[in-house]
Amino acid sequence: xxxxxxxxxxxxxxxxxxxxxxxxxxxxxxxxxxxxxxxxxxxxxxxxxxxxxxxxxxxxxxxxxxxxxxxxxxxxxxxxxxxxxxxxxxxxxxxxxxxxxxxxxxxxxxxxxxxxxxxxxxxxxxxxxxxxxxxxxxxxxxxxxxxxxxxxxxxx
Length: 156
What we know:
Layout: H1 7-18, H2 24-31, H3 35-47, H4 60-63, E1 67-75, H5 80-90, E2 96-101, E3 108-114, H6 117-128, E4 134-141
Antiparallel strand pairs: 1-3, 1-4, 2-3
């Protein structure tokens, strides 16, 4: 835990992860504080980068994308340039929600959202396969999802 965060800061972060639309007045009420210090703390947490942005969490199945896939990719070269080049390319693809450089048998793991298997095949053939240095791709497709949290655990 960061030593610069006290229980009130952590409380603000926890509450905002649950509902980013909370006003400073609502935060103050929930934390048994006054509005002015909560305003100052929230602003400081934003300025220091603890709070990166506020977003609306959408229901992916109600939008268009109903399939989640985790392609795991092996690169042919592992130079700093090759790793950075691959990373720069894949983060530009709108289907890619997350990109991880990982240890083990694969170099990268992506989390992607696509409407169906045809779209996934197109993504692999027209995007991933066209990148230089891609050696092998192993895909895991999600059958069902038991839990999906976007908030980070913050223990008070």
